[in-house]
């Protein structure tokens, strides 16, 4: 190239560089103040990424005896961690954070010049990734275990409430004695109501006084004719005195409440009730309580939810014996003790079940909550008798036609399948899987507004759906009486707690 052409080229390059705009529009750079926003987390993320790379280079430096570089990297890691602290947003960072990030950048640049080897760095990153995945898996198992443990634990105020009521029940002095006298008169007056087919009857099986009281109170509060509502509550021997005392001293008049002890059901024995024999078996107790069982924390989280005392309680299975408990009734509405009633439920008695035994809200959405979610379709007994795509439904609010129940021998069907599942090969524990089987092709779908579920596990339930629902259900571990409860759902339940009760004020005073 001659000198003139070279000069022209140089001048063109100079002019081009003078006119070059090195600002990239709408790009982000943490060092430019115009892009500094207090609600971002870019600097936090940058520093975390730097720490990860510094750890990679530190391990390589140590393996290659680069002691000075190793020391510099470890020092920067320590200082960056201190600068980040518990910050999640840039605005929460220590004032020295940017300087730490710059210092780390310089050390990383030096480390890259000395140590960088793409294969070695890739290998170290893979090791860190695998380690992180193992730590996440362990944390998930621990979280599942702790949530299950917290869900099974009786809160101290609730235990206090039970103890106070039991004490009152057995002492029966002063005002309590008057409660009993009034209750005895009312029981005599209400005796005929317990079998009156023209009234609205509810079945509640519970060992939780506070939960049962909310179910009854919310139902009566929203009923148009509360004097026509009869609640049949069955509890166990341990909680009978507390449950009885609560409804004696806090009678939801003009409604009727009848509390029974499950131990008084003489027909309920292991020779007739197969599940009772299974619940008492050594094999099932081993499944629950032996650490080497597959449901243990060390072996996985899949079956941890089944290690819950409710699955060993016969109260949980009484729903399959409705005609034995209520032989004179034609219809009864079953309510779980973790529901809240928000509307008058009497129109449910007018719903035509079209010859079906069970009226329930279906829960299937696309591929969720269908039969193959609950039952083992690799077993021929299941695959030959049921459709894996059949829609699941919910226990918690169910209208049972007891005349059809007897006609179709529903309890006999339940016994047949429960006997086949003694080794738990057809389904895991619980009452929904045998319920789906027992009421297969015998369930009438109710409108979804009758029963909205998920308040005990799903923080994303639509608020409009909740407020329009007749019954809301806290199914899951986050029960409203626990500290685990989803806070935004708790008010729907707590508004029906009788805060005027002296027992509740005393037992929950420390919670305020």
UniProtKB/TrEMBL annotation:
InterPro entries: GAUT, Glyco_trans_8, Nucleotide-diphossugar_trans. Its main location: Golgi. It comes from the Eukaryota. GO terms for molecular function: polygalacturonate 4-alpha-galacturonosyltransferase activity. GO terms for cellular component: Golgi membrane. Pathway: Glycan metabolism; pectin biosynthesis. It is found in: Golgi apparatus membrane. Pfam families: GAUT_1, Glyco_transf_8. CDD domains: GT8_like_1 (cd06429). This is Hexosyltransferase. It comes from Aegilops tauschii subsp. strangulata (Goatgrass). The lineage of its organism: Eukaryota, Viridiplantae, Streptophyta, Embryophyta, Tracheophyta.
């Amino acid at each position: 190239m001659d000198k003139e052409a070279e000069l022209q080229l140089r001048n063109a390059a100079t002019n081009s560089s003078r006119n070059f705009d090195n600002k990239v529009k709408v790009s982000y750079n943490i060092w430019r103040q115009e892009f500094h926003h207090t609600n971002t987390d870019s600097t936090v993320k940058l520093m975390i990424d730097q720490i990860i790379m510094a750890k990679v280079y530190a391990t390589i430096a140590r393996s290659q005896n680069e002691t000075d570089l190793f020391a510099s990297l470890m020092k920067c890691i320590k200082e960056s961690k201190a600068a980040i602290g518990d910050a999640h947003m840039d605005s929460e960072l220590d004032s020295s954070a940017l300087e730490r990030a710059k210092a780390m950048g310089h050390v990383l640049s030096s480390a890259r010049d000395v140590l960088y080897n793409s294969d070695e760095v890739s290998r170290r990153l893979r090791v860190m990734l695998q380690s992180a995945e193992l730590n996440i898996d362990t944390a998930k198992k621990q979280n599942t275990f702790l949530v299950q443990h917290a869900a099974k634990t009786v809160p101290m105020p609730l235990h206090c409430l039970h103890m106070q009521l039991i004490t009152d029940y057995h002492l029966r002095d002063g005002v309590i004695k008057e409660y009993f006298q009034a209750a005895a008169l009312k029981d005599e007056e209400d005796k005929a109501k317990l079998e009156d087919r023209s009234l609205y009857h509810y079945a509640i099986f519970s060992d939780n006084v506070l939960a049962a009281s909310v179910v009854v109170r919310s139902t009566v509060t929203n009923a148009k004719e509360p004097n026509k509502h009869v609640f049949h509550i069955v509890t166990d021997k341990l909680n009978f005195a507390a449950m009885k005392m609560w409804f004696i001293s806090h009678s939801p008049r003009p409604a009727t409440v009848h509390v029974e002890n499950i131990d008084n059901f003489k027909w309920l024995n292991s020779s007739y009730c197969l599940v009772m024999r299974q619940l008492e078996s050594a094999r099932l107790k081993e499944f629950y309580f032996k650490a080497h069982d597959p449901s243990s924390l060390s072996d996985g989280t899949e079956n941890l939810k089944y290690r819950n005392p409710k699955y060993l309680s016969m109260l949980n299975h009484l729903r399959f014996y409705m005609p034995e408990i209520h032989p004179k009734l034609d219809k009864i509405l079953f309510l779980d003790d973790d529901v809240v009633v928000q509307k008058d439920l009497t129109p449910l008695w007018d719903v035509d079940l079209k010859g079906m035994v069970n009226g329930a809200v279906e829960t299937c959405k696309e591929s969720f909550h269908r039969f193959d979610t609950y039952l083992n379709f690799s077993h021929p007994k299941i695959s030959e008798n049921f459709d894996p795509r059949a829609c699941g439904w919910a226990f918690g609010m169910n209208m049972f036609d007891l005349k059809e129940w007897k006609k179709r021998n529903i309890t006999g069907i339940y016994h047949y399948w429960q006997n086949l599942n003694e080794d738990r090969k057809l389904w895991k524990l619980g009452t929904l899987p045998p319920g789906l089987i027992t009421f297969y092709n015998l369930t009438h779908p109710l409108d979804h507004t009758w029963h909205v579920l998920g308040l005990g596990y799903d923080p994303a339930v639509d608020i409009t759906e909740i407020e329009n629902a007749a019954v809301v259900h806290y199914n899951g571990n986050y029960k409203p009486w626990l500290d685990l409860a989803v806070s935004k759902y708790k008010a729907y339940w707590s508004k029906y707690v009788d805060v005027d009760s002296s027992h509740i004020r005393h037992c929950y005073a420390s919670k305020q």
